[in-house]
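In the design runs reported in the main text, the only information available to the sequence generator was the tokenized backbone. The following block is the verbatim input for one such run; it is reproduced so that readers can re-run the procedure and compare outputs position by position.
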């Protein structure tokens, strides 16, 4: 009985792990602006972005290089 319980628990853990690993990453929207929570340079936003992310640029003048 203990072995079957262990096997069932292991199978459940593997199934949950596979489901989490297969979950698609969500795209983020990053911002460049002078308000809190936004990047202050274009380069910082580009460096932090991943495939599929969007970067919005607020009104103003922002540095672009390093």
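Verbatim output:
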């Amino acid at each position: 009985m203990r072995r079957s319980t262990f096997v069932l628990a292991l199978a459940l853990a593997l199934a949950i792990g596979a489901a989490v690993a297969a979950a698609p990453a969500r795209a983020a929207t990053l911002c460049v602006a002078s308000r809190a929570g936004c990047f202050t340079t274009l380069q910082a936003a580009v460096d932090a972005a991943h495939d599929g992310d969007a970067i919005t640029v607020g009104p103003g003048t922002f540095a672009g290089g390093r």
